[in-house]
Design a protein that fits this description.
Layout lengths: L45 E7 L2 H9 L4 E9 L8 H6 L5 E8 L6 H10 L8 E2 L2 E2 L5 E5 L5 H17 L8 E4 L4 E2 L7 H4 L24
Length: 218
């Protein structure tokens, strides 16, 4: 499949690639923790989904966080069912590259993960992250339960205020309920654990996110 020009906007339903009815094969286990990638997860754990640019570097940020049980990379917020990496990169599926985070709220709070999310990238860049340009690099928080809506919006507002005081533009992070998380192919899972010198492409603004973390004592 070859695309001569990547669109800078999201595709319409008529423009989106057709995809396929079955899931793309992926890894069975996390190469760092050894835990099952798709579960089942231990009782009491929660999930969160974030998009902050190239998912290779983004995933490493989260698997290094104490209290995180397992992470996985995938595609969210698009139109094409069960897309491949190449299809997502074409700009004709509407997805963004995302990280699924399975965490223990007794050790790390959702607010702490939001703080890590905002401090790990520049959420003012729209359809890009640094030199990575395209709709699949847009910033997003995808809610896995209704209790995540208020803290996600509060964190976005607080960080936007802090960034504006430093001369940055508006935060373009989208906040929406998660519809489907499509797991990416095996080779993309924990990519930087398999390729320690591989490309990361993840930056930040150097501005601390002014929200409480709620990290529980360990």
């Amino acid at each position: 499949m070859f695309f001569t020009r990547k669109p800078l906007g999201l595709p319409t339903a008529a423009e989106a690639l057709p995809g396929r009815p079955t899931a793309i094969p992926t890894a069975a286990r996390h190469v760092v923790s050894g835990h099952p990638l798709k579960g089942p997860y231990p009782p009491g754990l929660r999930t969160a989904v974030f998009a902050l640019g190239c998912f290779w570097g983004a995933e490493r940020k989260f698997w290094q966080q104490p209290g995180v049980h397992v992470t996985a990379v995938g595609y969210v917020a698009g139109l094409t069912p069960n897309p491949t990496y190449e299809e997502v990169c074409s700009g004709y599926t509407g997805h963004t590259e995302a990280v699924l985070v399975v965490f223990d709220p007794a050790i790390v709070s959702y607010e702490a993960l939001l703080k890590l999310f905002f401090e790990s990238h520049d959420p003012t860049q729209g359809m890009r992250q640094g030199n990575d340009v395209g709709t699949q690099y847009r910033s997003g928080i995808y809610l896995t339960d209704v209790d995540q809506d208020a803290p996600a919006k509060a964190a976005k507002a607080a960080y936007e205020s802090a960034l504006r005081s430093r001369g940055f533009g508006p935060v373009t992070t989208e906040i929406a309920p998660l519809e489907t998380f499509y797991f990416a192919e095996d080779g993309h899972q924990q990519y930087l654990a398999k390729n320690p010198d591989g490309y990361c492409g993840l930056g930040g603004t150097g501005v601390a996110c002014p929200i409480g973390t709620g990290i529980a004592a360990q």
